[in-house]
Amino acid sequence: MTERLRDLDESALLARIFPVYAATARDPREVPVGPGDDAAVVGAPGGTVVATTDGMVRGRDWRDDWSSGHDVGVKVAAQNVADVAAMGARPTALLVSLVAGPAVAVEWAVDLARGIAQVAGEAGASVVGGDLSSAPEGVLVVTVTALGDLGGRAPVLRSGARPGDVVAVCGSLGRSGGGLALYLAGERPVDPGADAAARTAEAASLMAAHRAPRPPWEAGPVAADAGATALVDVSDGLVTDLGRVARASGVAIELDGAVLRARYADGPLSDCLGPDEALRQVLAGGEEHSLVGCFPAGTDVAGIPGEPWHAIGVVEPVGAAGPVVRVDGEVPDVRGWDHFAPS
Ligand SMILES: Nc1ncnc2c1ncn2[C@@H]1O[C@H](COP(=O)(O)OP(=O)(O)OP(=O)(O)O)[C@@H](O)[C@H]1O
Ligand SMILES: Cc1ncc(C[n+]2csc(CCOP(=O)(O)O)c2C)c(N)n1
Ligand SMILES: [Mg+2]
Predict the structure, then answer these.
(1) What is the CATH number of the domain that holds 269?
(2) Quick one: average pLDDT of 280-287?
(3) Whose CA is nearest to atom 13 of ligand 1?
(4) Comparing C-alpha atoms, which of 143, 63, 35, 40 is closest to residue 99?
(5) Are residues 234 and 127 in the same domain?
(6) Of 40, 71, 242, 328, most Cβ neighbours within 10 A?
(7) Ligand 1 test: best mutation among 54, 60, 158, most atoms within 8 Å of CB?
(8) 139 burial via Cβ count (<10 Å: 0-12, 13-18, 19+)
(9) Last residue of some domain: 119, 149, 179?
(10) Which residue in 82, 83, 109 sits closest to 96, CA to CA?
(11) What protein family is recorded (predicted)?
């Protein structure tokens, strides 16, 4: 019989979760006090703390028939780590709040912890604590808070883009949104055996990217060191998130449609979604958590070490139309994600 949260008490649940997070424990000089006390104590070698939080809600941010607890753990941790990276920092510690109805399976909660621990381990952060709260039947909310360290760098803000800067992407575009579109169209991932059709394998890979993204968070500090003037992760869609950079910086941003089609939309994404929907996902698909940066004119973005960066556009002076994002001179007719006005 499935063991449910209502079958044990808080300390028994924590006794199942703590060992999972113990695997992420860092050197005591980095995390002098981990989980178990009233609060954790985390080092800040660079002298400041980068702090961000982002949560996921069952039914709004994932569906149980699509995603496992592990998938949700990977995604909620990854989106927080990407926000730390988008400041030019590396993550040091994560805190996890779990608000759950009594019928949630204990194994789901432990699997969630495993997913979070996986990302924490890969990103070099410790899970240092969190919170448990019960909720009415059916409610399930997971919120992660991430702390990060700039290592003495200046934070890379959304407001630093300047006319002439090169706009470049590190990581994929449109894949998570493409996977979501396939799920919403009723497709289910098929385990791609050796003889599976290429489209079957690609569709499964897009759906996996939607469930459990692996954004290139290591590239955040690297971009800062390469002189990035502005940096953001793609959470709500490329055009929406670059629109935030444009507004904060008081600039316009011009993207190259041919480059976006050739590098990100053509090929597997188009094969799965068709060319128009593929380009729409590249421009507006959310939850990719790839990094988009602006770099001073003349920066050889292809020469930035580590995960590759690809130029997709340029920053221009703001014009009569205001701080807009254009593709080939036109403001594209696409809408990114908005929690209170979902597209
Ligand atoms: N409820 C809130 N109270 C205070 N500040 C908030 C609240 N919600 C968001 N913010 C702040 O507003 C800014 C924008 O938040 P937002 O969640 O859009 O950031 P983001 O980087 O786009 O994250 P996401 O990856 O969730 O899209 C952030 O600085 C955030 O800390
Ligand atoms: C069931 C279901 N329906 C829709 C979506 C799509 N979705 C949810 S949040 C978000 C943007 C990022 O949010 P945030 O800004 O909070 O990080 C997107 C694109 C989903 N994942 N699951
Ligand atoms: Mg962000």
Answers:
(1) 3.90.650.10
(2) 98
(3) 52
(4) 143
(5) no
(6) 242
(7) 54
(8) middle
(9) 149
(10) 109
(11) Belongs to the thiamine-monophosphate kinase family.
Alpha-carbon separation of residue 216 from 78, 117, 146, 210, 330 (angstroms): 10, 17, 16, 15, 29
Query: pLDDT tens digits for 289-315?
Result: 999 999 999 999 999 999 999 999 999
Whole-angstrom CA distances from 288 to 138, 233, 280 are 27, 8, 14
Indicate the residue among 149, 178, 211 that finishes a domain: 149
Retrieve residue 141's tokens.
């909310």
Q: Do residue 169 and residue 34 come from a single domain?
A: no
- Asked whether residue 145 falls in the same domain as residue 162, the answer is no
Spatial CA neighbour of 77 closest among 35, 30, 113: 113
Residue 46's Cβ-count burial label (10 Å; 0-12, 13-18, 19+) is middle
Do residues 171 and 117 share a domain?
no
Atom of ligand 1 nearest to the CA of 244: 22
Least confident of 80-94, 186-200, 254-268: 186-200
| Pair (62, 175) in one structural domain | no
As given in the structure block, the two tokens for residue 286 are 């959310």
Per-residue pLDDT band at 98 (split at 50, 70, 90): very high
143 lines ligand 1 (CB under 6 A): no
Domain membership of residue 278 (yes or no) is yes
CATH number where 35 lies? 3.30.1330.10
Q: Which of 57, 236, 292 to mutate to test the pocket of ligand 1 (most atoms within 8 A of CB)?
A: 236
- Measured between its terminal Cα atoms, the distance across the chain in Å is 40
Treating both helix axes as pointing N-terminal to C-terminal, what angle do 198-211 and 69-85 enclose, rounded to 10 degrees? Answer: 70
Q: What is the ipTM of this complex?
A: 0.91
Q: Domain span at residue 138?
A: 5-149
Question: Residue 182 and residue 185: Cα distance in Å, rounded?
Answer: 5
Measured in Å, residue 29 CA sits from the centre of ligand 1 at: 30
96, 187: one domain: no
**Mean per-residue pLDDT, 270-297:** 98
Does 61 count as an annotated binding residue? yes
3-state secondary structure of 144: strand
